Amino acid sequence: MGRPRTPIGTFGDITYVKVAGGRVQARTRYRDDDGRLRRVSATGASNKEAERNLKQVLAQRPSHVATGELTGDTSFANLVEVWLDDLDLEGKLAPSTRALYERNMRLLVVPAFEHYVLREITVRKVDQFIKTLATTKSYSMAKQARTVLSLAFGLAVRYDAIAKNPVRDTTRLKKPPSLAMALTAKQVDAIREAVRGWRRAPGTPGPPPDGQLEQIIEVMLGTSARIGEVLAIRRCDVDVTVSPATVRICGTIVSPSGKPTHRQPHPKTTKSTRTVAVPSFTAEVLRQRLVAVAKDEPEHLLFVTRNGTPLTTNNVRRRLRSVMAEAGIEGVTPHSFRRTVATFIDRASGPDLAAEMLGHTSSKITKEHYIEPDEKVNPVTAEILESLGPRRRSDDA
C-alpha cells in the first residue's frame, strides 16, 4: 500500500500504515507545548476513518486544548461564559460589582459581538462599537462597555487565544464636560417641606409614610454618606453621648441579583471607612432612630422595613423620585445631598477637608465630581488692584 501524505494544519503530515486485521493506522508527529515532537496514532477501517480518529485523539490531548477552552475560533459568547467563571474563581469583586459587570456585558456588548469568533474581532470593529455606543447612548455606557470588553479580551490574551487585546488600541473616550450641581440651603428646605407633607394630607388613602425618608435625608446631609452607607448604619455605629455626636461609616447595603438584600461589612471601598462628627439636626434624627430600635441588639440597622429587613437603595430612590415629582422639584437624587455637603465644606475649609468627609483618598475626585465650581473670585482682589487706579493730580500741579 502506498503512503499518501495529507497535511493537517499545524499537526504535520499523516502517514497511513496497514496493520493486523486489514485495518489502517494513521500516524503523525505533533509538536507539544514544550516544543518536543511526539508521535500520535489512531486506527480505522479506512484511511479516512483512521484520519478522523487521529484528529479526535489530537483534539483531546491536553497540550492541544492548551491553556483552556479558548482559541481564535472560540465564539465571543463562549468567551463571555469563561470570563464570568474566571471572575467567580478569583473572587476579588464585590457581589454588586460582579453583577454590574455581567449586566453590562450581556446587555451592552454581547448583542454586538455574539456571532463573531475571537479572531474576527478587530480593533476597528471594537472602536466603531464603542464610538457608536457613546453617540447613540451615553459616554457612561460606552465606558462601562469598554471596561468589560477589555477585561474579557485580556483573559483571551492570557489563554493564548488571541495575540493582543483589541480594546487597547481603540480611541480613548473623551468625557463630555459636566458640572457638579449642589443644592442651596433654600432648596434643601423646600425638599424637607415636600417630604414632610407627602401623602399626609387629610383623606389620603392608605397608611401614612413612616417618616424614615426625611430622617435618611437629614443623615445624608450631616454625614455626606452614600445612600447605601446610610442604610447600613447600625446602633453600635452611633455615639450620641459625645458632643458633637459621631457616626461610623463602615458598611453599605447591597442587593445582589438572585440574593436577598443585606449589609456588606465595608463601604463602596474599604478605604472609605470613617467616623464623622455630625451637626445637631442629624444628631437629633439619630437619637430618634436609636429610640425606635432601643430593644434590638447593637448590630441592628437604624433604618429598616416594616418587617425589620434592610431597606433597599432602589426603594429609597424610587420614593424620593415620587415625592420630588409630586412637588415639582427636578434633578434631585440621593447623590445630590452628597454633592451639597462637599460644596458647603469646600467653601468653608477647602477641598481636602471635603475629600476627607466624603471618604475619598484624594481631593481630585472630590473637586471633579462633587464640588460645584465657584464663579466668585475672592473680593480681596478689589483692594489689591486699587493701587492700579488713576493717581490724583496734586492741587499745585
From TrEMBL:
Residues annotated as domain Core-binding (CB): 74-157
Family matches, as Gene3D superfamilies: 1.10.150.130, Intergrase catalytic core
Entry keyword set: DNA integration, DNA recombination, DNA-binding
Pfam families: Phage_int_SAM_3, Phage_integrase
PROSITE patterns, per the entry: CB, TYR_RECOMBINASE
Residue ranges occupied by any Tyr recombinase domain in the UniProt entry: 178-383
Signal peptide: none
Taxonomy, superkingdom: Bacteria
InterPro entries reported for this sequence: CB, DNA_brk_join_enz, Integrase-like_cat_sf, Integrase_catalytic, Integrase_recombinase_N, Integrase_SAM-like_N, Tyrosine_recombinase_XerCD
Family: Belongs to the 'phage' integrase family.
The name this protein goes by in its record: Tyrosine-type recombinase/integrase
